[in-house]
Amino acid sequence: MKKYLLGIDVGTTGTKTILFAEDGELIGSAYRPYDLASPAVGMNEQNPEDWWHAIVETVREAVPSAEIGQNVAAISLSLQGGTVVPVDASFTPLRPAIVWNDARCEKERAEFISEFGSARVIYEKTGWELDPGLPVLQIRWLRKNEPEIFANAAMFLTVPDYVSAKMTGIPAVDPSDAGINQFYNVREGKYDAELLRFAGVREEQLAKVVPSGTCIGHLTAEAAAELGLSENAVLVTGAHDQYAVALGAGATESGDILIGSGTAWVVTAIGDKPDFDSALAQSVSAVPGLWGSLLSLSSGGVSLEWWRRKLTVQDGGEKIPFSVIDTEAEARHAADDGLFFYPFSGKCKDGADFSKGSLIGLDLSHDRFDIASAIMEGVVFQAVWMMESFAVKPSADGLKLAGGASKSPIWTKMLANIANLPVRIPEVADLACVGAAVLAGVGCGLYADVRDGYKKLAIRETVVYPDADQAAKYAKHFETYKKNAEALGNVYGI
């Protein structure tokens, strides 16, 4: 009988599970949301048991029969990174998890800079900027503010190692997630003694770091029973969600660049060496021997959603469908009219970012859909401009696009023309689960490596090619866009 693979994406707001047959057939999928609690200003927490319950429920829903459940060979995970939970010796949480987007640790951040002389130190070690939401500072906060919890903690786990402990009894974490936890020196491939000392933890209180695509162990009898699977199934180390998505999109070679388009637009570039000179987030990727660089435009998709919510509906009214936006925007060419939009967190000059959005070139002839067109173009201009910061340059195969914008024919055409590159769009939307399934197949021996696994899953893609005339026009508009951005930076005092 066929063997099956489970790819599970444990995100910040919910968990998605997809079941694949080893030949790539998508058998079933399921999703469960969960809450994010905010106990005080700047604080964000979650109940770790919510992750586990969501995993159990989605696996049971995605697996259509007990017979198939008994033939699931392996599971792997795509994870939210940087969320920490102290646990006792039985891996029971001692308090709610502190989520990666928490902001309580500004004092601890200042203490780090005072002790080490610069925030840059932690970036040079871990590949991630010193952030008040990440575990190295959060654990120091726990030591000072919740000393009883700190003293009783046998381990300080994060999402991948907590789930690993629940499934196998072995807390293990992959290198891409270990880096964002900011204890793991990604250059040296080991935990950093100075960072451990600063937080006040011992190495044995953190999970073992295991390369992505490695078998951690078989499911325990208890976990197998809860999940409805066989104890013969194994858990395989996964990857931080951005790198799972990149793998799911087929970004397996140096020069592959993925743009993930959601609320934020995230550019992930795969290269054969790290690029610390860029100051971009650096990670060991899910592909052996390759690295990833990451940069986010936090106001990407949310800019168009702002237009839909704030500028085009009355209170209680319906938002304009995206299909209508596409149709109307196709008839307009905002940049041709000198109308440009600058996202709320976009780049302006010399690496500086805006904190305000702007529209330049409004005319009385323009209507709401001209503004929508400008917003879509502006987000793409920003994403392509961001790519110039990467040492990795796109290959001739072009860019890979995932997420909401990939469903918009107009946005994809804009990206192809502004970048002057082909844009490749995988047809499976939940690429994090695809990437996790590939790793599961590698870890249990069904696939020779991640490249073989991606081919075996046979994820089809659509390719959008640039139009030479439109690309030439956009090249001129892009230069105007950059000049305007520099002027705006001067206006804002940046």
List the topology elements.
Elements: E1 4-10, E2 14-21, E3 26-33, E4 45-46, H1 48-62, H2 66-69, E5 72-79, E6 84-87, E7 97-98, H3 106-116, H4 120-126, H5 135-145, H6 147-152, E8 155-158, H7 159-168, E9 172-173, H8 175-181, E10 184-185, E11 190-191, H9 193-199, E12 208-209, E13 215-218, H10 221-227, E14 234-240, H11 241-248, E15 257-261, E16 265-271, E17 281-284, E18 291-297, H12 301-311, H13 322-330, E19 340-342, E20 347-349, E21 352-353, E22 358-360, H14 368-387, E23 399-403, H15 409-419, E24 423-426, H16 431-443, H17 450-457, E25 461-464, H18 468-491
Parallel strand pairs: 1-5, 5-14, 9-12, 15-23, 23-24
Antiparallel strand pairs: 1-2, 2-3, 4-7, 6-8, 10-11, 13-14, 15-16, 16-18, 17-18, 19-22, 20-21, 24-25
Helix pairs in contact: 5-9, 11-16, 12-14, 13-14, 14-15, 15-18, 16-17
What does this protein structure show overall?
- There is one protein chain.
- The chain has 494 residues and is of the alpha+beta class.
- The protein has 2 domains: 4-242, Nucleotidyltransferase, domain 5 (2-Layer Sandwich); 250-426 and 460-494, ATPase, nucleotide binding domain (Nucleotidyltransferase, domain 5).
- The chain is 38% helix and 22% strand.
- The protein contains 18 helices and 25 strands.
- Strands 17-18-16-15-23-24-25 form a 7-stranded mixed sheet, sandwiched between helices.
- Strand 10 and strand 11 (190-191) form a beta hairpin.
- Helix 12 packs antiparallel against helix 14.
- The longest helix is centred in the last third of the chain and has 24 residues, at 468-491.
- The protein is globular.
- The chain starts with a strand and ends with a helix.
- 50% of the residues are buried.
- The model has no long low-confidence stretch (mean pLDDT 94).
